[in-house]
């Protein structure tokens, strides 16, 4: 068994597609109608056949509340791994990404946290 799709709730799929594609550099894998929304997934350019990230609308009240409470408590919705966190931090800062935590050493791993503009905090980690 393996993980094929994981999701993150987003307030606006179009804004999320721009952020995850243009700012983070992920590659759009699927974009098709799904009910009143879209089945909108992205993959890492380093592993285009790997795990897909579904940008899932937060239209259900429980999803919206969950997302808002995580954000209010400064809890990242998910984590992305990077090879060089300082390089990625500088690249994203130049693109206007707002960080709530700059790269910080945490017992042998370095983490940073940024706002995805779609209702989530995202953690980056260099192991």
Automatic annotation (TrEMBL):
Gene3D superfamilies: 2,3-Dihydroxybiphenyl 1,2-Dioxygenase, domain 1
Keywords per UniProt: Dioxygenase, Oxidoreductase
Matching InterPro entries: Glyas_Bleomycin-R_OHBP_Dase, Glyas_Fos-R_dOase_dom, VOC_core
Domain VOC per the UniProt entry, residue ranges: 1-127
GO molecular function: dioxygenase activity
PROSITE patterns: VOC (PS51819)
Oxidoreductase as UniProt keyword: yes
PANTHER family tied to this protein: GLYOXALASE/BLEOMYCIN RESISTANCE PROTEIN/DIOXYGENASE, GLYOXALASE_BLEOMYCIN RESISTANCE PROTEIN_DIOXYGENASE
Record-given protein name: Catechol 2,3-dioxygenase
